[in-house]
Specification:
Elements lengths: L1 H7 L8 H33 L7 H49 L3 H6 L2 H43 L1 H8 L2 H10 L1 H27 L1 H6 L3 H53 L5 H42 L16 E8 L8 E8 L4 E5 L6 H8 L7 E6 L2 E2 L5 H6 L1 E4 L10 H6 L7 H10 L3 H5 L18 H15 L3 E5 L7 H15 L3 E5 L11 E6 L2 E6 L1 H7 L2 H13 L5
Parallel strand pairs: 3-8, 3-9, 6-7, 7-8
Antiparallel strand pairs: 1-2, 1-4, 4-5, 9-10
The protein binds adenosine-5'-triphosphate.
Length: 579
């Protein structure tokens, strides 16, 4: 259980203190009116037992005033703690979500390969929501509901220990039932959380892929996956409620049967003269009250058990090791691959024993058939993934111990698939350098040939672009990403198919912009059209993850190997047209 509280509080159990304190006070607060009522009851009883003395109005007034004062104090203290409890719970969830998102940012991309993006969203929203609900409601209610019976038992043991024991005698059986079925409850809760997350992921996938689904008329198949996930959620929900409900009711029934035992014991004791009527009535009064909070305990126990799985999912991600390293990257140093072997799945290497050096301030092109590992090389230079064998270093600094943030500050990237945030187009370029002025943004846009189309937009640089850049054409997005890279002005430039989706007019202009971007930089370029890399200082030819050739365009042609074959194929394809 301790581990559970550690998990739900994100490792900060102290943050649960306000709610625990509020709950304890609430529990105590509920006992006092019950004790005062018992006293009033006793005073009335005494007035009937000895009618000549009459009702003790003094005592009745005193107790009533104490009760009133108590209620006011209770209200004030409870409102204060209530406020603290909720604030603590919501702050914990808000800061927890942010710190988890920040933690995720520091993980290698391998983590994202293993997890469904929808699953990560659910973790941050749904699982945290569950934990938030538990901290703000279930845990305080549980503590408060436990306090009343515990305090009542302690007090009643002094009044009449036999009656007190009779009242609570059946409770251990209720607890035993819960304990025996604990692993079943855990399994049902886990299955339900899993089914809920799966359904949410499928829904997210369906909505994000709606364009492709429509384009390929995949509605039926994809919708089937969505339907299956909702079916599974329905089954998991029925199983959870159908099994947990009777179990909790069973535990409740067992616990409540103590009341019957107490009544039987009380009746015999009363008849035997070992118990006075007021005490018996006091037990009856407290007895009926005491089982209400116990019902709450059992209900909340089920809820807490359920959210334990959400908490564990959160902690599992928290325990993922972020990328380590603080070594700084020397500027103007060569990039060295020394016998590097890497696979996204360690058992299936996609780069094999790769050794080469990229000299600073040169342009190196990576070529090779599709799937030969070109993009993977650029991802490894950015340390998006950790390699399995060999060393990648920049100068004398191995990347495995380099500071990930500093490394990325040295690299500008232009990817094949450009992602634009749902923000203004100006702010999307500013991502390259958050401190850039408007003039610098426009200068970068001009060099990347996007100033003209941006100026023609209704709100110019302040025009919002849809999520992922859905309101811009492929070529426009590519140019925006080149503007970002120009603005970043990093010493290493990774270009992946930078000119692939540009029309012929823009291609020439962007090629010039790229020439500016790459001037005096260390450039690693992937271009499928070999004519664009003819002038590269070095061309590295990959085939099935192995380096098969290396040299300049002329040297490679003279070598009559794979490069020449690729070159010839492309030359032949240059003049293709639809007949
Ligand atoms: N995230 C990933 N997880 C698992 N395997 C991957 C991942 N990315 C790429 N691969 C695999 O690694 C191999 C190399 O892929 P990579 O993208 O580096 O090739 P490429 O030469 O850049 O291909 P292309 O020219 O088609 O872009 C391929 O077999 C690919 O299927």
């Amino acid at each position: 259980m301790n581990h559970y509280f550690y998990n739900i509080s994100g490792g900060n159990t102290r943050s649960l203190l306000p709610s625990a304190l509020a709950a304890i006070l609430d529990g105590i607060a509920k006992v006092v009116p019950a004790a005062l009522l018992a006293d009033i009851f006793n005073t009335i009883y005494l007035s009937f037992a000895a009618p000549e003395a009459g009702l003790n109005f003094g005592r009745m007034w005193t107790v009533s005033v104490i009760l009133l004062i108590w209620l006011v104090v209770e209200y004030a203290a409870y409102s204060y703690l209530y406020d603290k409890t909720y604030k603590a719970a919501y702050s914990l969830a808000a800061s927890g979500r942010l710190s988890l998102a920040e933690h995720i940012r520091h993980l290698s991309l391998g983590f994202f390969g293993r997890r469904d993006p929808g699953d990560i969203t659910n973790l941050l929203l749904s699982d945290y929501g569950q934990v938030e609900q538990t901290i703000s409601h279930n845990v305080p209610q549980l503590i408060s509901a436990v306090m009343l019976p515990v305090l009542a038992l302690a007090g009643l043991l002094f009044v009449d220990w036999r009656m007190a024991l009779a009242m609570f005698a059946a409770m251990p059986f209720g607890v035993l039932l819960l304990w025996l079925t604990d692993s079943l409850q855990a399994r049902l809760s886990e299955n339900h959380v899993r089914a809920k997350n799966e359904a949410a992921s499928r829904l997210q996938e369906y909505l994000s892929g709606i364009r492709e689904i429509k384009a390929h008329n995949m509605g039926g198949k994809r919708f089937e996956r969505l339907r299956l996930s909702f079916d599974e959620l329905k089954r998991a929900s029925i199983r959870l409620e159908g099994i947990m409900g009777p179990m909790i009711m069973g535990a409740m029934l067992l616990t409540r049967s103590g009341l019957t035992l107490m009544i039987v014991t009380g009746s015999y004791s009363l008849a035997g003269g070992e118990l006075t009527l007021p005490v018996f009535l006091l037990f009856l009064l407290v007895g009926t009250k005491i089982f209400e909070p116990l019902t709450v305990v059992l209900m909340n126990y089920g809820e807490i058990r359920y959210s334990a799985y959400s908490a564990r999912r959160i902690m599992d991600v928290r325990q993922e090791q972020p990328q380590q390293g603080s070594g700084s990257i020397p500027s103007g140093a060569p990039i060295i691959f020394d016998h590097v072997t890497f696979g996204y799945d360690a058992q299936k290497p996609v780069l094999k024993d790769l050794t080469f050096t990229i000299q600073p301030h040169t342009i190196t092109a990576l070529v090779g058939p599709s799937g030969s590992g070109k993009s993977t090389v650029t991802r490894l230079i950015s340390r998006f993934w950790e390699i399995q064998e060999g060393i990648i270093s920049i100068g004398s600094q191995p990347l495995s111990s380099a500071g990930p943030e500093q490394l990325l500050s040295e690299i500008s990237m232009v990817f094949q698939d450009v992602y634009l945030f749902q923000d203004t187009i100006g702010n999307n370029i500013r991502i390259g350098n958050m401190k850039a002025t408007q003039a610098e943004i426009e200068a970068a846009a001009k060099r990347a040939c996007c100033h003209e189309f941006i100026s023609a937009l209704p709100q110019g640089y302040d025009t919002p672009v849809g999520e992922g850049g859905s309101t811009l054409s492929g070529g426009e997005k590519q140019r925006v990403s080149i503007a970002r890279a120009l603005l970043k002005d990093a010493s290493i430039v990774l270009l992946d198919e930078a000119t692939a989706s540009l029309d012929p007019e823009n291609e020439t202009a962007v090629q010039q912009a790229i020439n500016e971007l790459v001037a005096d930089k260390t450039v690693i370029l992937i271009a499928h059209r070999l004519k664009t890399i003819r002038n590269a200082d070095k061309i590295i030819v990959l085939d099935q993850g192995e380096l098969v050739e290396e040299g300049t365009h002329e040297e490679l042609l003279a070598h009559h190997g794979l490069y020449e074959k690729l070159w010839d194929t492309q030359q032949g394809a240059e003049g293709w047209r639809v007949k």
